[in-house]
């Protein structure tokens, strides 16, 4: 590999660059695979095409890739079938609604719909996270 600070060729397992003294993997000025010059903004190396790891921003709050709008609309429109629960990864709640609606021949559907509208209100109020506990975007 190459030092991502100075482009020096290093042993594969090197923890410190003997040329510049930095952690060879922590920089953004050279490609670790071919040593070509890169910038912090580049997504991949122009020379070899390697994907460059973006610098991590630990202070950024984690966020679900699922949106409030999509989950809320699904809850209002298809909530009786638990579609929004499946969307949020909450399969057990989704199956509960789906089975209740289908097994009752639709009789339970209005009740599941009411439950889903309550879900939608919680979703839009930002009080419902996805199954991983991440806030919806
Ligand atoms: Zn170096
Ligand atoms: Zn490269």
Describe the structure.
The structure is a single chain. 33% of the residues lie in helices and 0% in strands. It starts with 67 loop residues before the first helix and ends in a 13-residue tail after the last helix. The model has no long low-confidence stretch (mean pLDDT 92). It is rod-shaped and about 75 Å long. The longest helix is centred in the last third of the chain and has 16 residues, at 109-124. It folds into 2 domains: 1-56, no CATH class; 68-124, no CATH class. With 137 residues, it is an all-alpha fold. The chain binds zinc ion (ZN) (2 copies). Residues 31, 33-34, 36, 45, 47-48, 50 line the site of one zinc ion. The site of one zinc ion (ZN) has 8 residues, from loops.
Which regions are unreliable across 5 or more consecutive residues at pLDDT < 50? none
> What's the overall average pLDDT, rounded?
92
Number of strands: 0
Question: What form results from the Cα inertia axes?
Answer: rod-shaped
In N-to-C order, the SSE pattern is HHHH
Structural class by secondary-structure content? mainly alpha
> Count of helical segments?
4
Small molecules held by this entry: zinc ion
């Amino acid at each position: 590999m190459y030092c991502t600070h100075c482009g020096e060729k290093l042993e594969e397992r090197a923890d410190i660059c003997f040329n510049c003294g930095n952690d060879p993997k922590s920089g953004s000025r050279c490609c670790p695979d071919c040593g070509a010059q890169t910038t912090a903004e580049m997504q991949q190396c122009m020379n070899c095409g390697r994907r460059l790891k973006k610098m991590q921003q630990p202070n950024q709050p984690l966020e679900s890739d699922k949106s409030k709008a999509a989950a809320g609309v699904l809850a209002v429109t298809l909530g009786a079938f638990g579609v929004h629960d499946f969307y949020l990864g909450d399969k057990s709640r989704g199956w509960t609604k789906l089975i209740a609606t289908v097994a009752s021949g639709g009789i339970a559907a209005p009740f599941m719909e009411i439950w889903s509208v309550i879900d939608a209100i919680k979703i839009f109020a930002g009080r419902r996270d996805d199954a991983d506990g991440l806030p919806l975007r």
